[in-house]
Amino acid sequence: MDTIDESRGTVADTLDLDVAIARHATAEFDDSTSLADAGLESLSLIRLAVEAAADEDAEIDATRLVDIHNIGDLKVWLRELAAAAAGAQES
């Protein structure tokens, strides 16, 4: 398992994004479910992004939210945030 900080472990580190998303969703979902149908609001998306980045000081490009239409898109974005955070911590 790739970990950014093994003592903290993050959602994106374990790639168990379904579990993280389920904590914020109000309905069942799969990768093709729209964010609205899953019951995810913008505040929930930002909270998920902060969890994935695992760094309170990480910059999150909220303008990317307009390109996220379904759970699959959300997972891609969260993985990108985690990868960027990992790269920043290695620098």
From TrEMBL:
Keywords: Phosphopantetheine, Phosphoprotein. Residues 24-74 form the Carrier domain. Pfam families: PP-binding. This is Phosphopantetheine binding protein.
